[in-house]
Amino acid sequence: MSPELRLRIISGVILGILVLATIWAGGLWFRALATLIMVLIHYEFSTIVGAPQKTPLANAIGWLAVLATGVFIMTSLPAMALAAIAIGAAGAAFSGLRSGAGIWSATAVLYAGFSGLALAEIRGEGLFGLFAMLFVIAIVWSTDTLAYFCGRALGGPKLAPRISPGKTWSGAIFGAAAGVAAGIGVALAIRQGGGWMLPLVALALSAASQLGDLFESWVKRRFGAKDSSHLIPGHGGVMDRVDGLVFAAFAAFLIGNVLPLADHASAADELAARLLGL
Asked: What are the GO MF terms of this UniProt record (predicted)?
């Protein structure tokens, strides 16, 4: 085993344990993790697109918005967090367009802000939030693992050769199947059965996870970056590790807030109650 692979395995195991521990703890612990992920994503995304140099004012506005969003996430004020993201993105877009540098700073605010907010809201505070987060995590990890190994083993037509040459349709299909199986498995482990929409939503979250992976690959290729950063030994940056997770969390957050179920107040309760039959 090469030293690089050993380092990758060790850091991956440590990160996995820490993430699962904070998911289990929930509350302030997980909100802190979601906020940290948001801040690091904004730092990495802004660095990749060169926002500090190209649009310093828009970048500063973005940082103010992200920090304000973090405060609102930590204090469980999702509506205020959403407002901070929207206002910050609008301000960064206005400043970026005036300078001729485009809306990349605004994109960084939206991507990072919704990452932190969606993760925090899906986990929530109680037992339903734990179930919902485990549901999302199981789908994402299973999708990513099977897509990688089956894609390498089976090969075949490329999924998006101009964006990520290593990804194949065979990997995407087997990854999606694994994600659906994992989602159903979590539902069965929590309760015998689950909502009739369970396989469809698990498939949607798996597809969102793969879309998130492609989006990050496109951004890195667009700006000539190999990794989002070097913050995680052997793995690159935070974006490299959570690109699929945050897109799946976006999708789960939208599902949890769009599906009407008046008896539950939070996105986590909504998702768990509707999809897992609770």
From this structure: phosphatidate cytidylyltransferase activity
Using 50, 70 and 90 to split pLDDT, how confident is the model at 259? low
Can you list the alpha helix ranges (DSSP code H) found in 155-191?
169-190
Contact 255/261 with Cβ under 8 angstroms?
no
Indicate the length of the chain as a whole number.
278
Range of the domain at 231: 125-278
Look at the chain and report how many structural domains it folds into. 2
**121-133 per-position pLDDT tens digit:** 888 877 888 888 9
Looking at per-residue pLDDT, the higher value among 39 and 186 belongs to: 39
Residues 267 and 188 in one domain: yes
Angle (nearest 5°) at CA 200 between 161 and 20: 80
CA distance linking residue 174 with residue 153, whole number of Å: 11
- On whether both 105 and 147 belong to a single domain, the answer is no
Above 90 in pLDDT, residue 36? yes
Contact between 34 and 116 (Cβ < 8 Å)? yes
- Residue 180: count other Cβ atoms within 10 Å of its Cβ: 22
Q: How far apart are CA 129 and CA 132, in angstroms?
A: 5
Determine the 3-state secondary structure of 167 from DSSP: strand
C-alpha to C-alpha distance for 41 and 112, rounded to whole angstroms: 5
CB 243 within 8 A of CB 252: no
**Both 199 and 113 in a single domain?**
no
Read off the pLDDT band of 38 (50, 70, 90): very high
Task: Give the tens place of pLDDT for each residue, 204-241.
Answer: 999 999 999 999 989 998 888 887 877 776 667 888 88
